[in-house]
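go over whats below:
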Amino acid sequence: MSGSSLDGLDIAYCEFFYDTKWSFRIFEAETISYAEEWQITLKEMPYQKGSKLIEYDIKYGQYIGEQVVSFKKKHKLSPDLISSHGHTIFHNPEAGFTFQLGNGQAIASATGIKTISDFRIGDILLGGQGAPLVPIGDSLLFHEYDFCINLGGIANISFEDDNKRVAFDICPANQLLNYLSKRLGKPYDKNGSIAQLGKMNTQLFKELNNHPYYSLPYPKSMSNQLVSGSFLKILDDSDANVEDSLYTVCKHIAYQIKSTVNKSKTILVTGGGAHNKFLTTAIERELVQNVIIPDKVTVDFKEAMIFAFMGILRFEGKINCLASATGSKRDSSAGVIYIPH
């Protein structure tokens, strides 16, 4: 899969086991960094003409296929299935559509392996948000934790509420932090070392927390367009310097998580943001609950692993998309299966 932070293509080789309950193991995993050309292409894709979208849907699918073949040869693997999230270009459930670049047939043809992709559109056509999708994995693979939080480009959460799995996007996370870090010529703020040099800008903190998204009831999801169209504008309009902005955004993320997490005993935190020591410390200070950051492989590849799990469930015709998390009419088995030719 590929996230909104554009740091690269995550590939994980996973095995899943069922014996009264599901369990998993991640055997091999790595992030293939994008060449500058692909970074620019993916960033500009939302503004391209329809013909370019179709062209690059195929090209990016072929690129994914090529990377999977290399990964497979490097580690001497024989996967049964490929499960691909792709890279989100548009996500607008209110208008009834979503689009993840990376054609599933192109992947299947390039690899010779059955491929499952297009996980979001089926749920949207059932009236849901098409997101978040990872709650099925949180529910079946990480059920021992009260709350599961992923600190990716956007922070999201899932938890049990009245015997139903509830999930939604909390707030922007790494998208804001990386945007600010790039002002200093750095791709990201390693360990939050720049943020810790700053101080709170109360006006910026107030502006961020007053965003209308936070007053919406869940289920709800946050698009990349919402982040770039309004949250980044708040940062651009602020007179705070980069250090103070990074400090304030970290405190904003921690505050929004605290506003969401109020009854938990254990909180699992994964995603790239879990490596940001200043951010995780800010979260721990806001919460009195037990915050658990697992091993590095789980932190970095939990989402990719859960999409692999969704592929297994789809292939077996089992539920992999929860209406309680997305707001759709019913649970479903989401994803399209592509057979290699």
